[in-house]
Each structure stands twice: as C-alpha cells, then as structure tokens.
Amino acid sequence: MVLKVNNLSKSFNGQNVFEDISFSAAAGEIVCIRGKSGEGKTTLLRCINNLEFPDRGSIEINSLYLYKEESGQVKHASKSELQSIHQEIGLVFQNFNLFPHMNVMENLIEAPVFLKKMSSDKAKERALELLEQLELEGKEHSYPYQLSGGQKQRVAIARACMLNPSILCFDEPTSALDESTRGQISKIIRKLSSQGMAIIIVTHDNAFVDEIAEKIITLSEGKVTIEKTRRP
Amino acid sequence: MESKVLEMLVPMTLEGLKSTIGVFAVTLATSLPLSILVAKMRMSRNKIVSSLTGIYIYIMRGTPLLLQLMFIFFGFVFVPYIGYAFSRTQAIFIAFILNYTAYFAEIFRGGINSIDIGQYEAAQVLGLSRARAFMKIILPQVIKNVLPSIGNEVIALVKDTSLVYILGASDILKAAKSVSNRYSAFSPYIFVGFVYLAITAVLTKALAKIENKYNYYR
Description:
The structure holds two protein chains of two kinds. By secondary structure, chain A is of the alpha/beta class. Chain A is 34% helix and 31% strand. Chain B has helices spanning 3-42, 47-62, 65-75, 88-113, 117-125, 130-160, 172-183, 187-213. The chains are: A alpha/beta, B mainly alpha.
C-alpha cells in the first residue's frame, strides 16, 4: 500500500470534522472520497498533503510516516523526512494555484530544481515530456492567465507529476470543467493510474465517481460509512 | 530672473541637488529591503516581536519626520544609557531610513496579506522551503501589488528631503532660500519648484516603466 490512513481524527475549535477514519490506497488504484459539503473531505485531503495537522491517528506514505501517533501524541515527520514525503505525493488544487508570475515551464521546474536538485536542463526536458503527454505542447511559455480552465488544470497536474510522485491527489477535479474537458481529465487520471500512480480524488460529483472510482470512500457525519472496491 | 540671481542660484542648487539625491538614494536603497524584513517581523507569530515592531511603526508614522530629525540630532544624546551624539549626516540618514522603513513596511505588510493563501499552500505541497517560497513565489507578486503605493512614497520622499534644512544641511530648497534672502527675490523659489517638478517627472516615468515591466502577467 502506498497510502495508509489509520484512525485519523480532526476537529476545529472542539467540533469534530471526522473521527477515526482508516483507509488505504494501493499503487495504481483510483480512490474517490465523496460526501456532502462540510463532511470533511477536503480537510482529509489537506491532512494527507501536510496542510492540516490531525488531532489523532497516523498517515503513512510509501513507508514514510507523515504523522504517527505515539503514546497519545501525534508526531509530525522531521524536516528531512518531509522532503522525501513531498516527492512521494502531489496535489492538484480545486483552483489549481498556479504561480501567476511564472510561465508554464517555470511553474513546472521550480520544485524539481529546488527539491531534487535536478539540473534546469533536465527538468525542462522532463517538463516538455509531460506537457506533450497532457496535450499542452507549445504552451511552455504561456502564463496561467493565458490558459483556459482545463489547460490550467493540466498544467497543475504536470506540475504535481514533475517529482514523479507515488500518489496524486485531486480536490474537486470536475467542479470547474465542461463536459468535454471532464472526459479529458478522466482519461488523464486513468493513464496516470495505469502508470502505477495511486490517485486520491475528493469530489461530490457522483457521476464522476461512478465513472472512474475503483474504491469509494463515503464520508458521512465525520465517519467512513461505505467503502467498496470495484473496477469501473 | 536677473543674471546675478541665476549666477548664484545655479551652482548652489547643483550643490543642494547632490545632498537631495544623496538622502533620497540612500534612504530608498536601505529602507526598501529593510521594510520587507520589518513587515515580516510585524506579521510574526511571536507576540513580542510583532508588538515591538508595531510600536516602532506607530511612533514613526505618528510623529512628524521633522520632529524625528530633531530628536535624533539634538535629543538622542540625552537618552539615558544609549545616548549618542550623531553627526548631522548620520542623523539625517537614520531619521529618513527609520521613517521610510516604517511606511514601506506597512505597504509591504498589506501586499503580503493580499496574496492568496493558495499560493503558500501550493509552494508547501511542492516541498519548497518557507524562505524559497517567500523569495520566489510570494515576494514577486507582492512587489507588483505594492508598486503604485511605493511610487507615492518615493515621490513624497523627494519632497521630504527638503526637511534637512532644520539641521542646517544644504539642499535645493535651502539654496533657493539663501539666494532669495540675498537678493530679496521670490524667483529662486519658483526655480527650485521646477527642479522638484523635473525630478518628480523623471521618477514618475521610471516608476511607470517598472510597473509596466510587471504587467507581463495578471
């Protein structure tokens, strides 16, 4: 399993968002986390991506602990462990969060050059490969404001894939897309999963879940109530 | 304007211009980088650091620059334990740098606050260090946002340099005053008024160019 979430709980100001959530994801598996608004889907995804600190429980990413519960206390990974963990997991935000002052190429090579100490030339080579795979050839010098919503999302996917992560997370990937772009994104997700990447998708789009999910996790009243595994 | 007035005014104005440009350039070159640090200190989670920085900014913005100049030159020597007699030039630079750093810091604080939290989160998720994220992701966007406000302060600084007269230092306004007193003429003041306008015109053009440079993205 590339992702193991064990007994994870999170509250804000004493209000439980979710409690004792456990699930796992295998390499190449597409896991959808669904639930109504306010059920804590995005908070769960943020915990997995080190953007929120859980109250209890543990998260293991490719055998590295992001959070580990020891004698009732949640311990955070050390700085050096975090550096390794960041290379194993990527996140595509709902509104993409591309860096507006950087062109597509600069957006893509920033992390590998800094984190992996990759040479700029090598990073650019990898970026061009990814842009081609995501049908964004010729867009490397464009700035985010010059791209459509679907193109921005694909740049965000390319940026997250630059570090070759084992897990790629999506927050509401279909929320801002039209029908044809939606088809494109499910094709890309399937392709990434076939390359061995575990995909974690948070969505309230049930049609998309039915179309793509191999494992469905439904959050309701802060708890996992359904977990079923199937091939789409 | 009579030629004898001009004969005296031009060299004195040029001499004063050196001082005006010196104060302007040193203040700008020092205050701008310093103010980013002060803005970060003001936003620090450490309450002591944040409060002390807040008090400094409050004093600098709450009292006239003229008074600050006078205090540093004439009054600082009487401060118990840390009192020191600054030279005229030192007092001028210290007062201007402290004052303008406070104003610039508040502009930068607003600029930093205006950046979407998603930009910080994207940098964090990509594994960038906090320093790298600030320097490469946040600061360039902040600079674009604050440029118009910084521009206003830069132009105000040119005019504020005339306050050095209170410490007896020379500047272009003092040149006009000397010549005006000598020949009982008002024309030297009009002359230096045009000098200030010329400096402002050059700065306005330069600032517009810098703003344009940042217009490559939205």
